[in-house]
Amino acid sequence: MKVINIGICGLGTVGYGSYSVLKSNSRDIARRVGAEVKVTHIGARRLRPGQDIGSIKKSSDVFAVVNDPGVHIVLELMGGTDVAKELVLKAIENGKHVVTANKALIAQYGNEIFAAAAAKNVMVAYEASVAGGIPIIKAIREGLAGNSIQWLAGIINGTGNFILTEMREKSRAFADVLKEAQALGYAEADPTFDIEGIDAAHKLTILASIAFGIPLQFPKTYTEGISKLTQEDIKYADELGYRIKHLGISRKTPNGIELRVHPTLLDADSIIANVNGVMNAVMVNGDAVGSTLYYGAGAGAGPTASAVVADIIDVARMISHPESSVPSLAFQDDSLSDMPILPMSEVISEYYLRILAADKPGVLSDITEILGDRAISIQAIIQKEPRVDDVNQRVPVIILTREVRESVMDEAISSIEALDPKGEKVMRIRVFKLDQ
Fold first, then answer.
1. Above 90 in pLDDT, residue 59?
2. pLDDT grade for 387, boundaries at 50, 70 and 90
3. Span 211-239, average pLDDT
4. Active site residue 203
5. Element spanning 178, H or E
6. Is residue 124 part of a domain?
7. Do 151 and 252 form a contact (C-beta atoms < 8 A)?
8. Which one of 85, 203, 245, 252 is the catalytic residue?
9. Do 254 and 144 fall within a single domain?
């Protein structure tokens, strides 16, 4: 039986998890591939406690792995972008196939990496870069290939979803839940990538590219985090029949592709609004199939290793049977669309607005007049009692609008804030209808 050799660069949680799955499921993997798949070289500075790699060759220099002539497939599982990019390009230059779980690498440098791979006739597989163990890339790139994708929307960062779930279910403050998420290992010591939406934006960039056949364009992804959300917003959304989720949304419109990550109001009875804890879920709408949902663990050694090993099997199959391969971004390289990314100012949405207004006659009519002057229709308005601890006696006013262009809403919010220059900024949360 033919043997396909694997080199692993990075032996952290995902790296060792992938090694373990390859080892424990080696017989089934060989049956699926038609060849023996085995790890022959590992690049890592050191082994962690409990890691046992037997007699497999180990190098402290990861570049020794990509320069090993016996290695056929390189696993880049180190994270980061600088060394990882250099490593992946070197592996490609050496004629080796690559499997990576690195969403930042693919989102930022994927166009260059895929071009290099095509020139050398090797594969770069990246299923594990988005949503952990959920095979969402394969589903869009292959399972839904017969569809014209209309939109996709997903909870693609488990840390943010855990925080919002705890805030809603246990009435906890954002800062307290973040500390727990860090203690549990869901969030890093510097949680910026998770709570400010950067991690989700990397993943959404990748999903949009394979869904709509466009080049990867991470810098054009609108990104907004969850750190400004309050218990009040969670509660008021509930009263209006909604849940707040940190969503990545990409939608095809006649004018361009929407590419945006931000807190979003979803109907409370929708399936995705009830995805809680650290779980991930992605909905994809195609013209033939309608809406489909993909749900599962978005991180962790087992789920991510599952995706890594699935990619290894795909690449190994291609090595054994070179006639079967799928383009890196689902569409042929010379057929990628030049459809533009729609500026956020052109996005059309319904809006939730929380306004802390001065408790005096005429203020509410001033606010509604500002909205009316811009043809912004209101579907619901709630005025609350003044905050007990607010010496300025301002009252929360909650407004749910009908659809309006973002640039028009920007103007309206600026005018509302000008009514009370010393007051709080208006809280804006966009609404997404899953039946659109």
1. yes
2. low
3. 96
4. yes
5. helix 174-183
6. yes
7. yes
8. 203
9. yes
Greater pLDDT, 216 or 359: 216
Tokens of 330: 């689902």
Residues, the chain, total? Answer: 436
Domain total in the chain:
3
Residues 281 and 306 grouped into a single domain: no
Q: Are residues 165 and 291 in the same domain?
A: yes
> Residue 15 belongs to what domain range?
3-133+301-335
**Shortest CA distance to 373 belongs to which of 333, 415, 435?**
415
Tell me how far apart the alpha carbons of residues 128 and 345 are, in angstroms, rounded to a whole number. 32
The predicted model scores a pTM of: 0.92
d(CA 378, CA 167): 27
DSSP 220: G
Across 313-328, b (16+ Cβ under 10 Å) vs e yields bbbbbbbeeeeeeebb
Whether the Cβ atoms of residue 9 and residue 43 lie closer than 8 Å to each other:
yes
pLDDT band at 392 (very low <50, low <70, confident <90, very high): low
Phi then psi dihedrals of residue 257, to 5 deg: -100, 125
Each residue's pLDDT tens digit, 281-337: 999 999 999 999 999 988 778 888 888 998 898 898 888 766 556 777 878 778 889
Residue 187 confidence (pLDDT): 85
Residue 350 pairs in a beta bridge with 431
d(CA 328, CA 122): 10
In angstroms, the CA 329 to CA 215 distance is 8
- The answer on 282 and 170 residing in a single domain is yes
Question: Phi/psi of residue 57, each to 5°?
Answer: -60, 135
Whether 258 maps to a domain, the answer reads: yes
